[in-house]
């Protein structure tokens, strides 16, 4: 008489439940996953022991010693199979957890770099805007005009051809050589002598300043 083996399936969840467990496992720590699978293995061992006792009891009651030995072997094979399946799933969940943590760490580092880069860009932009505002301020036009006068005094023997200036700077310079240029910023100027020229362009200076600030930020980061 063959002994019927009890179904081991309660120890292994259906595929749908398995996926839910895997999703849940992603949020568990390694210690928690280990604890869960230790309990599963203990449960499997208890189930195995009960099956062996039941097979032995039935074998003796019915006088089928050989049947018991055969059932014992079948139960042992089934037990080892289920145990291996549990071990495989345990390793899979641990690997999945590690992969998720690694991916999360990389994404966190990427976001951090993006935020720092954005903050650096905003900082540089704010500095440039402040400097630009101070430079184009009407109150600063007289200061720039004084600097133009100082430049002219430094080259008294050079033939002056023309002084091109921005529209806000023009009222502060009295000379027939002064000409307002639409291509210049409000307080920009270009002094043209016969053999050379001197000019001040805010946008070019601010562009150079921006590059210098960005280089210093990279050095300190």
Automatic annotation (TrEMBL):
Residues 1-28 are annotated as: Disordered. It comes from the Bacteria. Residues 17-28 have a biased composition (Basic and acidic residues). Residues 38-114 form a coiled coil. Keywords: Coiled coil. This is Flagellar assembly protein FliH. It comes from Phorcysia thermohydrogeniphila.
């Amino acid at each position: 008489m063959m002994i019927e083996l009890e179904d081991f399936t309660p120890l292994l969840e259906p595929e749908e439940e398995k996926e839910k467990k895997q999703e849940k496992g992603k949020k568990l720590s390694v210690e928690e996953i280990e604890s869960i699978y230790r309990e599963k293995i203990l449960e499997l061992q208890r189930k195995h022991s009960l099956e062996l006792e039941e097979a032995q009891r039935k074998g003796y009651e019915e006088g089928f010693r050989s049947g018991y030995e055969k059932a014992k072997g079948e139960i042992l094979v089934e037990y080892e199979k289920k145990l291996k399946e549990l071990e495989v799933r345990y390793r899979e969940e641990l690997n999945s957890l590690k992969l998720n943590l690694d991916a999360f760490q990389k994404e966190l580092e990427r976001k951090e770099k993006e935020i720092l880069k954005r903050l650096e860009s905003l900082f540089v932009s704010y500095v440039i805007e402040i400097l630009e505002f101070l430079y184009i301020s009407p109150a600063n036009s007289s200061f720039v005009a004084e600097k133009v006068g100082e430049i002219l005094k430094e080259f008294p023997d050079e033939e002056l051809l023309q002084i091109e200036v921005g529209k806000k700077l023009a009222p502060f310079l009295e000379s027939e050589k002064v000409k307002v240029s639409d291509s210049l910023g409000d307080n920009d100027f270009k002094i043209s002598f016969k053999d050379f020229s001197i000019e001040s362009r805010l946008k070019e200076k601010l562009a150079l300043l921006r590059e210098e600030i960005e280089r210093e930020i990279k050095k300190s980061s």
